[in-house]
């Protein structure tokens, strides 16, 4: 039985992040801070995290701005669709 072979890496990563966030929240609520961070450090960490996440998303995703690039995206989608349907 290939249970873990069917689960995507994204699902595993999101689940792990959720588990860490929930653990951190529970520990913080019970008065056991996981990371002793000051407010200014927290602000810097959060804004840096958003910047890194936005940068990685922009770098990874196909960002087509020109008309030629948009037409190319449509042709690629059509070719992938045709390949998936066996045409």
UniProtKB/TrEMBL annotation:
UniProt keyword annotations, A-Z: Membrane, Transmembrane, Transmembrane helix
Alphabetical list of InterPro entries matching this protein: Holin
Chief location category: membrane
Subcellular localization(s) per the UniProt record: Membrane
GO CC term (a single one): membrane
Pfam families, alphabetized: Holin_SPP1
Top-rank taxon: Bacteria
NCBIfam families, per database record: holin_SPP1 (TIGR01592)
Protein name: Phage holin
């Amino acid at each position: 039985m290939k249970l873990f072979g069917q689960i995507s890496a994204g699902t595993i990563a999101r689940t792990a992040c959720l588990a860490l966030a929930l653990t951190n929240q529970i520990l913080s609520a019970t008065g056991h801070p996981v990371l002793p961070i000051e407010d200014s450090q927290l602000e810097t960490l959060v804004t840096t995290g958003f910047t890194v996440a936005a940068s990685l998303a922009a770098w990874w995703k196909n960002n087509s701005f020109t008309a030629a690039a948009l037409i190319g995206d449509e042709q690629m989608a059509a070719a992938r669709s045709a390949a998936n349907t066996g045409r």
